[in-house]
Specification:
Largest sheet: none
Low-confidence stretches: none
Radius of gyration: 43 Å
Distance between the termini: 108 Å
Number of helices: 11
Order of helices and strands: HHHHHHHHHHH
Helix content: over 70%
Structural class: mainly alpha
Mean pLDDT: 81
Number of domains: 2
Length: 350
């Protein structure tokens, strides 16, 4: 009977059977992960190959065009008339490149000089500020140390008085000393906190160091740009009598010589001589610092800027200095080098 009851209870009971846990195979998961990474790397490599192939095709096309230009130039140079036209074209471009490089050299030299000056000034100012701040924090630290020492001495005196008032008839005196001791202990905690803050301030100043040089100031960049504009305008004025400014601009707008017009060899040779003389004029402009300064000072008086952070003046504001009137002598350039961007001036300015 007992066995029958046990069997019936067993059948009535709810048994939940779960399959045995399957051990997780970490190696299989790692293999899948590695496979995904390899597929991703393979796809990136394929994309890079396609990009490189496209760049090679573009480079091949550019090389083919350059080869065609060289072959065409060789054919033109073989003919005296077209050969002289090509020489004049590239000499005009060389004249433009000479003026462009002279202005760029001036801008770089002025920027280097002004940066060195402002860097030294910045370093001296930072040293002064750091020294003053260091002295201020050292004085605060010394004051905190003296205050902390005074509080400690006073607390020690109160502790000694409290210890000597153990007799029962000094009960009220001991109560007063106890209240005073509590106040002095609170004052000592405050003094130690002030001392800790003062030490942290001194250490923080030592860790911070000096402020890095922020670069050329706004006024320095504006001044350098005005000098560059004045120098570019001086070159244009000196070249105005040669009547070469317009041919130079036309040559810079064309990558190839213009063979459409018929020109005599003598005229082309005369123009080449004139270009050589103009190159000497451009080089001689480097010794005209006084005249450049005069133009720059006048530009400073009339220059207007479109924003507080702008470094290049508005071209229209410089017309009073750069633009010569119609009845001006032939030696003056009737052009605004900033508005006309004659020597690619915008690319050179800071």
């Amino acid at each position: 009977m007992t066995s029958y009851a046990a069997l019936r209870n067993l059948l009535r009971s709810r048994l939940v059977l779960s399959p045995p846990e399957q051990p997780e195979d970490g190696r299989v998961l790692q293999l899948f992960h590695n496979r995904a990474q390899l597929k991703k790397a393979y796809g990136q490599a394929q994309d890079e190959i396609h990009r490189l192939r496209d760049r090679i095709k573009l480079q091949e096309g550019a090389t083919a065009r350059v080869r065609e230009l060289l072959e065409s130039l060789e054919e033109r140079l073989a003919v005296p008339a077209s050969g002289l036209q090509a020489l004049v074209h590239y000499q005009l471009r060389g004249l433009w490149g000479l003026a462009h490089s002279r202005i760029g050299t001036l801008v770089r030299e002025l920027a280097a000089q002004r940066e060195e000056l402002e860097r030294r000034t910045h370093a001296a100012e930072q040293n002064r500020l750091v020294f003053e701040e260091q002295q201020k924090r050292q004085r605060a630290l010394a004051e905190a140390e003296r205050n902390n020492a005074d509080v400690r001495i006073k607390l020690a005196a109160v502790q000694q008085q409290f210890a000597s008032s153990r007799a029962w008839w000094k009960y009220f005196q001991r109560r007063a000393l106890q209240r005073r001791r509590h106040a002095m202990q609170a004052e000592q905690v405050a003094a130690e906190a002030d001392l800790h803050c003062a030490r942290e301030a001194v250490e923080e100043l030592e860790r911070s160091g000096s402020v890095e040089f922020p670069g050329l100031s706004l006024e320095a960049r504006r001044a350098i740009n005005r000098v560059a504009i004045a120098y570019a305008q001086l070159i244009a004025r000196r070249l105005a009598p040669t009547q070469l400014i317009e041919p130079v601009s036309n040559a810079m707008r064309r990558s190839e010589p213009d063979y459409s017009g018929a020109a005599e060899g003598a005229a082309l040779l005369a123009q080449m001589t004139q270009i050589a003389s103009a190159c000497g004029i451009v080089q001689a402009c480097g010794g005209s610092a006084v005249e450049v300064k005069q133009i720059s000072d006048r530009l400073r008086e009339v220059a207007r800027y479109e924003g507080d952070g702008a470094t290049v003046p508005a071209a229209d504001s410089l017309d009073a200095v750069l633009w010569a009137p119609a009845d001006a002598p032939a030696g003056l350039s009737r052009a605004n080098v900033l508005r006309d961007d004659l020597w690619d001036l915008e690319q050179l300015l800071l």
